[in-house]
UniProtKB/TrEMBL annotation:
Keyword Transmembrane: yes
Biased composition (Low complexity): 374-395
Spans traversing the lipid bilayer: 7-31, 37-59, 71-90, 102-126, 138-158, 178-202, 209-230, 242-264
Domain of life: Bacteria
Pfam families linked: PrsW-protease
Name of the protein in its database record: RsiW-degrading membrane proteinase PrsW (M82 family)
Keywords assigned by UniProt, alphabetized: Membrane, Transmembrane, Transmembrane helix
GO MF, any single term: peptidase activity
Region (Disordered): 364-395
InterPro entries noted in UniProt: PrsW
Native organism: Nocardioides aurantiacus
Length: 395
């Protein structure tokens, strides 16, 4: 109950802050150009969003994060991070009189990565149970970065269409900038903030206090350095080194990070399989269910079968059961590693009970196609206390 109240409070507070940020950025966008220029900037900035979100949703398939939190991450990047970073940069310019080059190469990376990374830190402190490892950190960092890039691109593209500093604008100017920002470097902001996501993911899965403190901090430093290197290449010597930086720094770093993300996704399957096998050994589910839960393709097949055999109700039961089992598996993995959240016993019991209720309605794929049948049922008759006494785990 306490966890639900805390989660609800987190959602409400972040939503209110996001609304304030949206009002601020709405005013900034309204003052940034004519309605026509703003419309062009908005349309062009929106084009990369869906493909980018799709990439991170693909990474997130083994244990899908709550859609509400992913939307909050996008909104935080689009409205809160952008507005706060803008205010900080304007304050720096007004108070310290920082030049454009220094502001772009140093001040912008420091403030923008701090405001983007703050959302992931808030998750770490207030919704820690949603973070199971590095891949979750990457997904949330990516969503925040996509939201930030969307709003920032609107500002830049609107200015490019309107023209400034004697440079003619028009649609060709906006499209030219879109090619640079939306096609050649759409992953820039998600890429920078991914270092913070990795750091937070390492902190969640580590038993060392040093790692828990230094990993997020180190991730932030790396995010600022990568961001600063890219921004600096665009402003120093009028951008003469931009292509070299892009080719020899951004591209290799992005490929390495992408490979790491794919490896982390494959690792999640192995982790989930081992955890569910151990759950089956302890009696929380039937061993025959594990293959239908640990592999994405098998999950989809099981859902299609359940829908053919039992209609929409059969599919809903299967989807709900798979979701509970996957959550239980990753929670159990953290328990086995000794890094489970403080409320893991209550959460684990909730998943086990939900699975027990859903299990009689499950329609699993069977060797025979003539009639649908149920997989062997594991009856949960023992109390959590007696289960612990028999080494069945914390539930």
């Amino acid at each position: 109950m306490q966890r639900r109240r805390s989660s609800a409070a987190f959602t409400v507070v972040v939503s209110v802050v996001m609304l304030v940020g949206a009002l601020v950025m709405g005013l900034v966008l309204f003052l940034s150009g004519t309605p026509g220029a703003l419309a062009v900037g908005l349309v062009l900035a929106a084009l990369p969003v869906a493909p980018l979100v799709g990439v991170y949703m693909w990474l997130d398939r083994y244990e899908p994060e709550p859609r509400s939190l992913l939307v909050l991450a996008l909104g935080w990047g689009a409205f809160v991070a952008t507005s706060v970073a803008l205010v900080l940069q304007l304050a720096d310019s007004a108070v310290l009189g920082t030049g454009e080059g220094w502001s772009s190469a140093v001040v912008a990376p420091v403030t923008e990565e701090a405001t983007k990374g703050l959302f992931i830190l808030l998750l770490l402190f207030f919704r820690r149970h949603e973070l199971d490892g590095v891949l979750d950190g990457l997904v949330y960092a990516g969503m925040v970065g996509i939201g930030f890039a969307f709003t920032e691109n609107i500002l830049y593209l609107t200015s490019a269409y309107a023209g400034e500093d004697g440079v003619p604008g028009g649609f060709s100017g906006a499209v030219g900038l879109f090619v640079v920002r939306g096609i050649f470097s759409p992953f820039a902001h998600p890429f920078f903030t991914s270092f913070i996501g990795i750091g937070v993911g390492l902190a969640v899965t580590s038993r060392s206090w040093a790692v828990r403190v230094l990993a997020p901090l180190g991730g932030y430093v790396l995010a600022v350095l990568a961001h600063g290197a890219w921004n600096g290449s665009l402003v120093i010597d009028d951008g003469a080194n931009a292509f070299t930086t892009y080719l020899f720094l951004m591209v290799p770093a992005f490929l390495l990070l992408s490979g790491f993300a794919v490896w982390s996704r494959q690792r999640e399957r192995r982790v989930l399989t081992r955890a569910l096998d151990d759950c089956a050994r302890r009696g929380f589910l039937d061993p025959a269910e594990v293959p239908w839960l640990a592999r994405i393709s098998a999950r989809r097949f099981a859902r299609r079968y359940a829908e053919r055999a039992g209609g929409q109700q059969g599919r809903r039961v299967m989807v709900a059961y798979q979701g509970e089992a996957v959550e239980l598996g990753f929670l159990h993995h953290r328990y086995l590693r000794g890094v489970a959240p403080s409320d893991f016993a209550v959460r684990g019991q909730s998943h086990v009970e939900a699975m027990r209720v859903l299990r009689p309605g499950l329609l699993w794929p069977q060797p025979s196609r003539d009639t649908p049948g149920h997989m062997p049922v594991v009856h949960q008759q023992q109390s959590p206390q007696s289960a612990q006494a028999q080494d069945r785990g914390p539930w």
